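Changelog note: in this version the structure field was regenerated for every chain. One regenerated record is shown below for reference.
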Amino acid sequence: MSADHIAVKPESTSARQPKPCRFRLSFLLIVAIYPLITTLLYVLMPLTSSWETWHRTLVITPVMVSLIVFLVTPAIQRHFGWYLLRVPRPER
């Protein structure tokens, strides 16, 4: 076997990034998303009082998913990444 076919070993386990704690992430998402859903419902309910539940859900779902993907999750990762990764809080 020539030197061209030598397999490269993955980095050592000590160099791996810590995995985020899903329990902590779920807690932070609940804390962030609950007020958003509540506010959205208070705004939407008077405008859609005659709508069926599935119609309201059809409107709320893309709004909430977009807020979670583009606003809430990046903000949580930016401000609480240290908490999710279980590392000491960086000094400001």
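Spot check on this record: The mean pLDDT is 87. Residues 18-84 form one domain.
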